[in-house]
From TrEMBL, chains A, B:
This is Fur family transcriptional regulator, ferric uptake regulator. GO terms for molecular function: DNA-binding transcription factor activity; transcription cis-regulatory region binding; zinc ion binding. Keywords: DNA-binding, Metal-binding, Repressor, Transcription, Transcription regulation, Zinc. Its cofactor is Zn(2+). GO terms for biological process: negative regulation of DNA-templated transcription; regulation of secondary metabolite biosynthetic process. It comes from the Bacteria.
Length: 136, 136
DNA sequence: TCCTACGATAGACAGAGTCCAAGTCAAGAA
DNA sequence: TTCTTGACTTGGACTCTGTCTATCGTAGGA
């Protein structure tokens, strides 16, 4: 995680307690927190941190490419710090749990030109849905 | 579309003017309207229809499997009446336009057992992103 | 140590969707 | 045809997620 903080400082980020705490909350594998969850965990360490700051910081991390924004349902977006290894998501329809998964094959290659309608297609996101062991 | 109305009646749906209008608005290919757009178009034919009724009716159509709910971004869900032929979606990052597409291959088959973490995986949704000819 | 521009804050605001109590009406029964 | 009833509709309040703005605070350079 200090890696991330170092990279951010290298990019000219002013380092504040709030930004540090948000970055620390997002540390780890298989982390897919909503903005509200990030705020709750950040506030446990730094009680006066505001929602607006959490949203601002998450937005900056996303635009710097350090965090991925995932919309697994129509509800709140989730934030995934595993931005440096391509992957897809497996979502439990019961409890909403999200796991990173690595399918083989390239979904982009499966879309024939005739099905692109003149679009410049740059990305394919796959969301697998099912029930996790606890919900099955 | 009268097909749909017949199927719904066959399932014990009470046929009201509101439900008929919502079903009619969703007729056609490559239709991906938000709830608000459905409401606006329905209200053009039946001015007093309420938002709650549109949401209720869309929810029922989805749970009957006659309409698919698509969350292409973190904003409003879209409703796709093309529920009886499997397909994926191609979304323009510029203007938000959505097209139905039919890639070959089965994304479900690309997810090895070792990457399923004990989940019962039943569905794979692919969202292709890029720029449409008008936005490129 | 002092300055100042960048960052944080609280709270108002907006969009999407849900919920509820009260009124309405489709469709089967008489 | 008329009656009855429970399913359907309505409007408005409410929740949740996210954005914006004016003001205050402070990290880091001079």
């Amino acid at each position: 995680m200090s890696d991330l903080l170092e990279r951010l400082r290298g990019r000219g980020w002013r380092m504040t307690a709030q930004r540090r705490v948000v970055a620390e909350v997002l540390d780890g594998d298989h982390v897919h927190l909503t903005a509200d969850e990030v705020h709750a965990r950040a506030a446990a360490r730094l009680p006066e941190i505001s929602r607006a700051t959490v949203y601002n910081t998450l937005g900056e991390l996303v635009s710097l490419g350090e965090v991925i924004e995932v919309a697994t349902d129509g509800r709140a977006k989730r934030y995934d710090p595993n931005a440096h290894r391509p992957h897809q998501h497996l979502v439990c329809s019961g409890c909403g749990t999200v796991r990173d998964v690595h399918p083989h094959g390239d979904p982009l290659a499966d879309l024939p030109d005739a099905e692109r309608f003149g679009f410049t297609v740059s990305q394919a996101e796959v969301t697998y849905r099912g029930l996790c062991p606890a919900c099955a």
